[in-house]
């Protein structure tokens, strides 16, 4: 039992269901964000590496 001011508030089954639904939604949301960030980081790494290879190749061709 949690006291809110003067009145007492008792959690019932509906409150627990809503809490669990919100908690599970938040967990799913955070896991999707993490996966998206991992994919974006991977793409940025690949792009940076490809750019470096291109510049290094361009520099070597111009030396010849």
Mind sketching the topology for me?
Elements: E1 2-4, E2 7-9, H1 13-63
Antiparallel strand pairs: 1-2
Short characterization:
This protein is mainly alpha-helical and 64 residues long. It contains one helix and two strands, in the order ββα.
Order of helices and strands: EEH
The domain count comes to: 1
Average residue-wise pLDDT: 86
Q: What's the Cα radius of gyration?
A: 27 Å
Described by its quaternary structure, the protein is single chain
- Measured by DSSP, the beta-strand proportion falls in 5-15%
Uncertain spans: none
State the helicity in percent bands: over 70%
Structural class: mainly alpha
| Strands in their spatial order, largest beta sheet | 1-2
Largest sheet: 2 strands, antiparallel
How many helical elements? 1
* Structure summary, number of beta strands: 2
Shape estimate: rod-shaped
> How many angstroms does the end-to-end distance come to?
81 Å
């Amino acid at each position: 039992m949690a006291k809110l001011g003067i009145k007492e508030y008792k959690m019932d089954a509906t409150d627990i269901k809503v809490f669990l639904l919100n908690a599970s939604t938040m967990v799913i949301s955070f896991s999707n964000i993490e996966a998206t960030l991992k994919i974006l980081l991977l793409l940025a790494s690949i792009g940076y590496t490809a750019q470096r290879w291109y510049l290094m190749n361009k520099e070597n061709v111009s030396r010849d």
